[in-house]
Amino acid sequence: MKQLIHLAAFVAGSAAVLAGDVTGTITLKGTPPPEKPIAPLNADPNCGKVAKGPVTTRHYVVGAGGGLGNVVVYVKGGLEGKKFDAPATKAVMDQVACLYEPYVMAAQVGQAVEIRNSDPFLHNVNFMKSDAGNKTFNFAQGGAAKPVDKVFENQEVFVKFQCNVHPWMFGYIGVVANPYFAVTDKDGKFTIKGLPAGKYTVAIKHLKAGEIVQELEVKDSGAELKAVLEVK
Question: Which structural domain, as residue segments, surrounds residue 90?
Fold first, then answer.
């Protein structure tokens, strides 16, 4: 199905928007296919004990008003030549009840990503292929193991994790070269904090619905961006 591009970007008039903040909502057009039960998870002798009810795939997370979750929204152009220090705080990817949590997250180039295992048994974390030259890895992580930090040196949306012990386990990280990014919540809402006034190219990317880009002008009072992705 052809992707529909329907974007509106405009200066927000609400006093509630902080200076330099870009807020918005990403929605989905069309009816996504039903999510599939992950039967092997419940059948696994370890995972079945920690499963929290029926577990399904998370290809399209659609909330109130058709808002689409797990979309990475980030500044793709307009910051050329500028350098950004990596934040001291860590981004966290956990393994909980035989799923990666969060399923989709974002981190800045150079930022430490802390990989945890909150389950009381073995997983492994396999980043097997990079399209951007990031260093791949594959390590085992037991239930009592300490968290492991990994750093990605190049922008790559998305980095893909898989657990080979439990092959239904996938997790994704949008690694962005600047600090101006966000991941939409379950209702498709997001906020990018503190983007200076100027003109930018903003990318909106989803694992299934693909990527669209839009030119956006940010004023001192901030801006609002709305986008619609279509089911593929």
Answer: 85-177
